[in-house]
Amino acid sequence: MRFFLYLFCGVLTILTISCKKKPDTKKIETSILTEKWVSLFNGKDLNNWTVKIKGHPVGDNYKNTFIAEDGCLKVNYDAYDDTFNSTFGHIYYNKAFSNYKLRLEYRFTGKQLSDGASWATANSGVMIHCEDPKNMGLDQNFPVSIEVQLLGGLGTGERPTANLCTPGTHVVINDSIATDHCFQSSSKTYHGDQWVKLEIEVRNDSIIKHLINDHIVFTYTKPQIGGSVDFNEGLWKSKEGAPLKKGYISLQSESHPVEFKNIEILELE
Predict the structure, then answer these.
(1) The 3-keto-alpha-glucoside-1,2-lyase/3-keto-2-hydroxy-glucal hydratase domain covers which part of the protein (predicted)?
(2) Which of 58, 49, 65 is closest to 258 using CA atoms?
(3) Half-sphere exposure at residue 90, Cβ-oriented, CA atoms within 13 angstroms
(4) Where are the domains of the chain?
(5) Given a cut of 90, is residue 52 above it in pLDDT?
């Protein structure tokens, strides 16, 4: 505050003027404009990505399950004989992250392989806070991680996307540890092969948000080790309750063709 004294008609008057600064809107606008989103996929090849498929060693892109084509990273079953045989696969970006926003677009295409599970129809996922793929067992189905489950509509009925599944993990929802395996989001259902925009905001081991087409559809906190796993159970049991502060990002293959594009990350302080 600044104070000014005036003598008016013999009366001493104090005039107060506020010196509180207005928000620097120009600086805020500049910050938004200079956000450094970085592309994780160049649209041409799988450089900087590592494949791990059940039953095959790390780095073996079995039957070209993951390909770069038409500017998209595709889950592709052209070389399969129409059977999946539980060869669950994941493709990992070669760097671990902790605080970030991840955004991409995805869509389901074609038909599911004939022996894929009914729940895996138009089903994929973005796995965050993943364990290192080099540490996975040869026949391990899924990495210990937080799964942002992606589901496509089946033509009729409701089937929300950007749900939460928890292979080897737990989270806190509404101030309580949530120990079920999967939880539905509040998203709409997206039928057919339309592109859907996904964004995930990850704040270390504090809060995680799922957004579909710019709308928040799920929020939870405190990701941590917990629950059943299908490899090295003793090791993970000894770590139960340990917070998940960082990890790898992977995209999933579960027997239905799916495409991803515009995969970008914004690291946060």
Answers:
(1) 36-265
(2) 65
(3) 27
(4) 36-267
(5) yes
